[in-house]
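Sample A.
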Amino acid sequence: MSDRLSGALLAVGAALTVGGSFTTLNSAVDYRDREKDEVVVESVSKAWSHRTEFAEGLVSTDGVVDRVQFDGVSLLVGIVAALVAAVFLLVGPGRRPPLRRGLAVAGGAVLFGTTLAVVMEAVSVAQWESDTQEMSFGLGFYLLTGAVLLSLAATALTLVGAQRSTPAAPALPQSSHPWPTPPAAQPYPAGPAGPPPSSY
């Protein structure tokens, strides 16, 4: 039962990671005059892209700059690892629980590490907020935060289930005597009388 629950948690965590990789992680707005709400630069970060929009007249281009981000690559690795582990836990063969649980722990750990790295990166960027800049988290940030918690719960549940299912070693029989008892003497049958001993 714990394996099935861990697989379900990993599957949901992978789904949240898919959604988080294509939605906004954080956004920033730079103001020329915050009281007058005059925006100079507005940027939006996602796992696969980063878009910056400048106010009219600041740059000679059309005012939009798009760049590729590679956080999506690490999230994709976490998604694949979690889905493989979830499949083995939910529909995998039941004769090899150590293999299933090993994959579950590995998949949960990879998903946890990749999503946590992206979440912490978004938090680090948000610390640069100033009087003229406003930072905010997007839907992707909260989806990835949920994936972090689910992957951690799935890994812990798998480890606990593995410990509970490990059979205990049989207890050795205890002797009622503090020291070993020597074997009882065995009577030997008397044989036929032999000839009298020789005088030589």
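Sample B.
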Amino acid sequence: MQFVIKRVPLGKKVISVLTPQNVPDNLWFAEPLITSRAILGDANGFAFLSELFLIAVENQIPNVMFFVPRPYKNNHTPVLATKEIRSWYNIGKYDLDLVLFNYHILQIRPKEIKRVINSLTYLPGKEINLMSKSTLLNDYIDTWNHWRLKRLLNTKAFSKYLAVSGNRDILLYLAYQADRFKDIEDDEEYNFRHSHADTIGTSVDNGMDFYYYYENSLK
């Protein structure tokens, strides 16, 4: 995966921000007001996310943060299928940017995240290529223990960002969940198939769901 890396001074440390290039259009980073925070995307979007999570699992760069801006084409609320779903989700925010990090590698507060991201415009960057290791998914399935994930996922929506953080096991779990959507056909009939990561948050408010969602108009 191609990234632009920029290094941002923050107090006594330097934050390395990795921004992936070629983000798929069918991706929404969402903060519904009634149910869990969510990421919506089609098969291509979730294949991208699975690779990103796997790269974050293996990352060895100190104080690194992955920053995924909302796709430019994606400037509206998804068309929500049923009356029940609309009642849950239409009052949420669907135009957030994603911030992702391993909290054993980076400890950072929301106001510091905003400061770092606001600095990116004025700093030079360098293109780098990082490879994911798909065999980690097979290793994860072989050693899966749900109890190891309890209360380790942290999500927070603030300003225009959705911040997602966890340890290596959490990031691998998210990669596995995202990977399960990547072979669904491009068909709106499958919209809102989902998986849950809402039971492993650091609190009942800090979980997250994945929803398959495809819009032909964004192709």
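B remarks: Residues 43-58 form the longest helix (16 residues). The radius of gyration is 17 Å.
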